[in-house]
Amino acid sequence: VYRGVDNPMTVSFAGIPDNKVTVSGVGLVKSGVGYMMKPGAGKEVIITATGILPDGKSVSDSKPFRIKNLPRPTGMVSGSYENVKKTRANLGISTVSAEFLDFDFKLTPQVTSFLFQVPGQPSTKVSGTRLNASAKGLLAKARRGDLVQVADIKATVPGVTLKSVSSVTIEITD
After folding, report:
1. In the chain, alpha helices (H)
2. For residues 25 and 129, what is the distance between their CA atoms, to the nearest angstrom?
3. Which of 52, 166, 168, 173 lies at a 20 to 30 A Cα distance from 73?
4. What's the pLDDT at 33?
5. DSSP state, 129?
6. CB within 8 A of 69, min separation 6: which ones?
7. pLDDT band at residue 93 under the 50/70/90 scheme
8. 133 — phi, psi (to 5°)?
C-alpha cells in the first residue's frame, strides 16, 4: 500500500459471504463495495478479517501489508515523455503533466510549476501547466533541431510530498 493516499482494496474470506465478514486495520475505512486504506507512518500495516462460519463460530486471519512511498512520477508534454517532437506552435499550446506509469490504481498528480529551458538561453520558471509569455519568448529563440527541456517539474497529490518529477526533452521540428 502507498503512504498518504487512498489505496482501494477488496477483502474477502474464503467460504464466508461478505455480509458475515468484518475487516479492520489502522487507516482502513469501508468505501462503496470495498475499502480504502490510507496508511500513515511506519513500514507495515496489519489488516485483520474476521468471519462468522455457517455454524456460528468466529474465525479470523491477519495479513501484513508493506507501506511504500509513492514512486517518482514521469513528466509528460501533451501525454508524451519519450522522443517528443513538436513544432513551436504545438509546444506553445501543449500541457505539461505528470503520471505514475504502470501504477496499480488511478492517481493523478497535479503539476504546479516547471522550468523551461532553451539551449543558450537562461531558463524561465513557469507556474501552472502551460508555457507563459516568458517561456514562449524563449521558445521563439529556439532553432529547428534544438532540444528544449521542461525540467524541475513540481507536482502534488493531496496530502503527499512527491519525489521529483522526471524532465521531458522536446525536439523542435520547425
Report:
1. 88-92, 133-141
2. 38
3. 173
4. 80
5. S
6. 2, 3, 163
7. very high
8. -60, -40
